[in-house]
């Protein structure tokens, strides 16, 4: 039996989710005096805050992306911390390296802010763990029943089958620099692919950082094509940010097969719009079955929905007799998955 909500520890402000009892924001969209950050993607981690509290890996990643002066002060989240009148804890989210769910507990109901999270095993980061709470704040990136992501190993199998079928062509895989690129590389290694993998220069720093954190990416080499040497990349797998494919960079490679690793590749129109020949449905977010399973298992008194498609999951909660509401945070955009 769910108890009625008393005053909640988090409220919405133009800057984002705010905790009055602790005087901090979680993943604020504007610079604030004190920010708690769930992970290093730019739609959650912004520069310019007075102080930032996050996992050690997220702080490192923010420094790599924004420079060492990305905040006035920084603090590593280690164990439960008392901030004002609340206790905060950071728990693995399974999204990208360093990603965390943030639990806030005080005199009233406890709340868990997931940021972004994934329940499918990701060899490039710590696995998601369930965290009991009264209020569950969930993302809704793929919160439609149509989104049922396949086994990522199956998608990597498609890539390797194409490489075997077209040994004269380079396979260029679009993958975002933080998280997705390293996950694709790890999935290839787990599938037994031990050949060199070539990476765009924009991925180098973050791949080097993953290696320093014990993520075994294997033999990575720069995707640099010397004049008259494009044939050297026949049969190679090249990982690059999707933005690279909009330029002439991709044409440096021999008859490239354009691939894109994303949960959005379930939508054929998106693949066609991007000129993707081989879509790879690999996501670092929960899909519809994982989202509904998570809410069912945690069984919070309330579910707050943000960052994506709210209507379907709100309707599902209503049909299950579960209390839910949209946050509609101003300024949040879909992460380019």
Automatic annotation (TrEMBL):
SUPFAM superfamilies in the record: Metallo-hydrolase/oxidoreductase (SSF56281)
EC number assigned by the record: 3.1.-.-
GO MF, one annotated term: hydrolase activity
Top-rank EC class of the record's enzyme: hydrolase
Domain of life per record: Bacteria
Record keywords, A-Z: Hydrolase
Database matches in InterPro entries: MBL, RibonucZ/Hydroxyglut_hydro, Xnuc_lig_assoc
NCBIfam families referenced in this protein's UniProt entry, alphabetically: Xnuc_lig_assoc
Name of this protein: Ribonuclease
Organism field: Roseinatronobacter ekhonensis
């Amino acid at each position: 039996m769910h108890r009625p909500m008393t005053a909640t520890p988090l409220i919405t402000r133009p800057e984002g989710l705010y905790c009055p009892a602790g005087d901090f924001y979680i993943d604020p969209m504007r610079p604030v005096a004190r920010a708690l950050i769930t992970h290093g993607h730019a739609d959650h981690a912004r520069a310019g805050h007075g102080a930032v509290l996050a996992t050690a890996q997220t702080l490192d990643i923010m420094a790599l992306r924004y420079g060492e002066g990305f905040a006035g002060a920084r603090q590593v989240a280690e164990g439960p911390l008392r901030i004002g009148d609340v206790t905060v804890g950071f728990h693995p989210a399974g999204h990208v390296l360093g990603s965390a769910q943030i639990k806030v507990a005080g005199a009233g109901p406890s709340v868990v802010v997931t940021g972004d999270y994934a329940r499918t095993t990701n060899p490039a980061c710590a696995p998601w763990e369930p965290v009991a709470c009264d209020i569950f704040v969930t993302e809704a990136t793929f919160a439609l029943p149509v989104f049922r992501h396949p086994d990522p190993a199956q998608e990597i199998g498609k890539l390797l089958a194409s490489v075997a079928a077209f040994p004269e062509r380079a396979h260029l895989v679009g993958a975002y620099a933080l998280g997705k690129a390293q996950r694709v590389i790890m999935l290839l290694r787990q599938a037994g692919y031990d050949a060199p993998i070539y990476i765009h220069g924009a991925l180098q720093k973050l791949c080097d950082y993953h290696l320093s954190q014990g993520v075994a990416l294997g033999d990575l080499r720069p995707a640099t094509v010397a004049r008259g040497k494009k044939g050297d990349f026949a049969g190679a797998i090249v990982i690059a940010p999707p933005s690279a494919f909009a330029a002439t960079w991709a044409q440096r490679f021999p008859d490239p097969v354009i691939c894109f690793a994303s949960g959005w590749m379930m939508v054929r129109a998106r693949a066609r719009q991007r000129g993707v020949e081989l879509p790879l449905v690999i996501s670092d977010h929960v899909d519809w079955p994982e989202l509904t399973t998570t809410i069912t298992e945690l069984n919070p008194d309330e579910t707050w929905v943000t960052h994506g498609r709210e209507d379907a999951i709100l309707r599902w909660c209503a049909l299950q007799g579960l209390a839910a509401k949209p946050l509609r945070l101003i300024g949040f955009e879909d992460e380019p998955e």
